[in-house]
Amino acid sequence: MAQPHSNLSPMRRVWKNYGQLASLLILPLAWFAIIYVGSLIALLIYGFYRLDEFSGLVVYELGLDNFLAIFSPAYFAVVMRSFLMAVAVTAASVIMGFPLAWYIVRYTQGWRRLVLFLLVSLPLWSSYLVRLYIWKLLLAKEGIVAWIFTALHLENLLDAILSIPVIGGSSLSFSLIGTFLVFLYMWFPFMVIPMMAALQRIPHNFLEASEDLGGSTWQTLRYIIIPLAVPGIAAGSIFTFSLTLGDYIIPQVIGNSSYFLGQVIYVQQGTSGNIPFAAAFTLVPIVIIGIYLWFVRRLGAFDAI
User: Fold this and answer.
1) SS3 123
2) What is the pTM of this model?
């Protein structure tokens, strides 16, 4: 039986395959170019315009005023606050998630592993807003968290925590500590699941070889487990970092009056109507996440997604 394209030369066969591939990709690539790349270009261009302070209308004259305003003390503090919160949530997710992922992968099987996996992913089963407002009730001054501290006679400890400058507040629901806790709860599964996938791929004979060669538990962890788990950690950090950096609903419901990146963009394009500055400010998280993606790509993050 004759093989398909057997009468075609190798070069023509290659070009035919490329043509078929191009016909399949042209529509999604066109959609990506127009909707995504086109929107980014429009944002960049609009960021160079300005808003007339008296008429409230957009003045279509190119300038750098909006981009320079980003480096003013008030807005630069928002950028740093959002960046540090994203780093803190990512670091806490790694520290808390790595032992859990290792335990699930190495010490559970069958239904036990399934139950633990379901418990990890359980927060993703309900609505984002439902989970958020439940946490607002839990962290309120009369909420269950404050009640637990009181029942354990640790109310002085809670007051001391809430009295910490910058991150404290009148209650956990009105403090950056509460904002951090809710961010951590929301995005924690996105860190654990990629780490589980990475740890699952570590061959068991690597661990046995380390033990046979006299390696201690710490040496095995440092030189074998963690290096092989780095792609999974980096992949999970993409989600925790980017989702924290761009979220504006959680800081609006949980926390003090400190603004984050998403809130500034929301207020500028909504309440203030300053769309040019909102467009310029939108590029800040895009640039930060772009740099972060370049960094984690070097760690092999995309190989673990």
Assistant:
1) helix
2) 0.84
